[in-house]
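Agenda item 2: pyridoxal-5'-phosphate complex prediction
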Amino acid sequence: MIDNFPRIKLGHFPTPIESLQNITKDLGGPEIFIKRDDCTGLATGGNKTRKLEFIMPDAIKNKADLVVTVGAIQSNHARQTAAACAILGIKCLIVLEQRLANAPESYMNSGNIFLNKIFGAEMILCPTNKNVEEFAEEIMDDRKRQGVIPYFIPVGGSNHLGELGYIECMREIIEQDSEKLFTHIVLATGSGGTHAGLLLGRLIIKVILKLLE
Ligand SMILES: Cc1ncc(COP(=O)(O)O)c(C=O)c1O
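Presented output:
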């Protein structure tokens, strides 16, 4: 099913699953494993690689010459989107949201901000009295008037296309778990796309297995 959706290879898959022996021992509980989605590639890796593999073809299909996205100052999503755009030769504009009061200089200029600059992304700071998505829309309207074709990626790359990446990840996990060791998945969630994709992936696989019974 997933193979019917356009996809551009941006990362390294499948990512390995490793045993966390020391944490397992320290906690004295069930055996804990880690799915190494920090190793997906694309500007040091992270969970947005999987999402962008399905989102970027849509930007290209829509003939976008500018990808616009939003995120916190140190957004990993913004960094990986900037990298994907650099690879594909599409301009990238990141509208940054200041979520911290009195943010230190290093937070404002290093880390992902530094990498965004290297990848050639344009960055605009959203005024604190404005909603970041509305502000991004104003900027896009402005650019459209200048003849630009912008394409918007929501915060965290969490939309119906981005979720495909984590439906596929669930398939990958089940394939890797040949001994049926895993009973629970624990994950970090922010914009919710990773969580939604994994849940939907599990549901689809359950339905397929039921149909095969
Ligand atoms: C490293 C990392 N893990 C997990 C998440 C959460 O993923 P999602 O936005 O799909 O909920 C994010 C982004 O917010 C992230 O940067």
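Discussion summary: The beta strands are 17-19, 33-35, 66-72, 91-97, 122-125, 150-153.
Owner for follow-up: CH.
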